Amino acid sequence: MTYRVCFVCTGNICRSPMAESVFRARVAEAGLDDLVEVDSAGTGGWHEGDGADPRTVSVLEEHGYDGAHTARQFRSSWFSRLDLVIALDAGHLKTLRLLAPTPEDAAKVRLLRSYDPAAGDDLDVPDPYYGGLDGFEECLEMVEAASEGLLAEVRERTKGQVA
Fold it and tell me: Which residue, 41, 43, 124, 137, is the most exposed by fewest CB within 10 angstroms?
């Protein structure tokens, strides 16, 4: 049985594609790519069909990650097929929980940085879109730090499963 994780930010061109790419790499490194499906979406559809922001692609590729991506908008109907919906900031968390058709679906929504013990109370990944390249680098650092804890949870939830 496939375990499905979807990362969600606003437009699906900066933070969530970065998280998708990093986490997909972590899943592959852990040998779980036959068990875990990773994707991303945005709360809005402004960039649907576009590639990731060129700065996202640049930072990802510079650090050895895949930069290929096509933006799409999250749909509430997806909750039924997803196991975890990972929000990149508190605004996304609220929006996604409001979109959830059931309380069980709302419980699937978590903040990415909640998986990083060093994050403390600051659980938002800041939107780098209106800034320079340094904001994208900072975003990548936050995503990488949280990915280890998220991988540990996913590994635990998929323990004993066969693809």
Answer: 137
User: What is the edge-to-edge ordering of all strands in the sheet holding 84-87?
Assistant: 36-42, 3-9, 84-87, 109-111
Is 145 in contact with 136 (CB distance < 8 Å)?
no
Distance CA 157, CA 28 (A): 16
Q: What is the DSSP letter of 140?
A: H
Q: For 34, phi and psi rounded to 5 degrees?
A: -80, -15
Structure tokens at 12: 């699906």
Give me the active site residues, please: 9, 15, 127
- Helix, strand, coil share of the chain (percent; to 5): 45, 15, 40
- Per-10-residue mean pLDDT, the chain, length 163: 96 98 98 97 97 98 98 98 98 98 98 97 96 97 98 94 69
